[in-house]
Amino acid sequence: MSAMDKITIEGVRDFDPARTFCCGQCFRWYPSAGGAWTGLVGTRRVRVLFLPEKGGGGRLEITGAEPGQEAFWRRYFDLDRDYGEIERRLSDGDPVMEQAVRAGRGIRILRQDLWETIVSFLISQNNNIPRIQGCIERLCLEFGDPSDISANTDLSDREGQSDGSILQAAIPAPEVLAALEPEDLSEVRLGYRAKYLIGTARAVCRRGLPESGDDLLALPGVGPKVADCIRLFGMGEVDRFPVDVWIRRVMSRMYGLPDRTDSIRDFARERFGDLGGFAQQYLFYWQRNAGKNTAD
DNA sequence: GGCCAGGGGATTA
DNA sequence: TAATCCCATGGC
């Protein structure tokens, strides 16, 4: 482990870190100085900077990543998938998606750890993103293993000053959470989600992590929406189209659909097919940033 | 299938 | 100060 651990990946195309980290799929990436982003993946804290080059591609610098781990990061950022092709296919013949893709060009679907994804989206239910992030940070700080920091990955530009309370520790292991009672989590302020988290941790300790998406619905606190998020972000099922209030809003407004989850999911399966997950991310980001868009 | 409590906090009226 | 909303689920 060196103070200068860094991986550089050349020839990266169709990647916009800010959009990727702000499209609702992940909660542990924060803006850093100079357009970089600092995040925690597993126990590893890294800083990511994308440097565009002439010709469309660019160079991805991952500070704090161990040399030799390039394959892991290529997979995490889904770098071997052709997102330019996905953006073209979704835009073709669909003026709504054309706009959504234009607003969200460069979004990638991260391949996140399954347990982290389960914990994150259990907490996310009926909740807003800043508070989800706060809950996760408090949970990790109190019960998680300390972050593995091998290089300078300070959060030097968050709200203008560094913040020593975020990205300090990893998501707690299932065994750790399974041993808790809801009152032990009171300071994390999860509300009614605390009992879901503990119940799910106990189920995972008994039966292991779910291997199929259909097994997710047996976990306490996991319904259709949360299961779709876990399948899309944690199990690589990129055809999943999670329907939440933002998606309902944009779909009913732009496609004239009735504001009902079932009909929206049916429409998405018909229209987007195996690209449903990508379409969902462009639409979610577009709707969330409606009115404050620079790319459109 | 519809209704509503569950927690908490930010935003809006 | 009160009402409303937020990447829902579970129980009735």
What does this entry look like structurally?
It is a single chain. The protein has 296 residues and is of the alpha+beta class. 42% of the residues lie in helices and 10% in strands. The protein is built from twelve helices and five strands. It has helices at residues 17-21, 70-76, 83-91, 95-104, 114-124, 129-143, 174-178, 193-207, 224-234, 245-255, 261-272, 276-288, and strands at 6-12, 29-31, 37-41, 44-52, 58-63. The chain has a five-stranded antiparallel β-sheet with strand order 1-5-4-3-2. Helix 5 (114-124) runs antiparallel to helix 9 (224-234) and helix 10 (245-255) packs across helix 12. The chain is globular. The chain binds a DNA duplex (13 and 12 nucleotides) through helix 6, helix 8, helix 9 and helix 10.
List the helices and strands and how they pair.
Blueprint: E1 6-12, H1 17-21, E2 29-31, E3 37-41, E4 44-52, E5 58-63, H2 70-76, H3 83-91, H4 95-104, H5 114-124, H6 129-143, H7 174-178, H8 193-207, H9 224-234, H10 245-255, H11 261-272, H12 276-288
Antiparallel strand pairs: 1-5, 2-3, 3-4, 4-5
Helix pairs in contact: 3-4, 4-12, 5-9, 10-12
This protein binds a DNA duplex (13 and 12 nucleotides) through helix 6, helix 8, helix 9 and helix 10.
Question: What's this, in brief?
Answer:
The chain has 296 residues and is an alpha+beta fold. It contains twelve helices and five strands.
Descriptors for this entry?
296 residues, alpha+beta, five-stranded antiparallel β-sheet, 12 helices, globular, DNA-binding
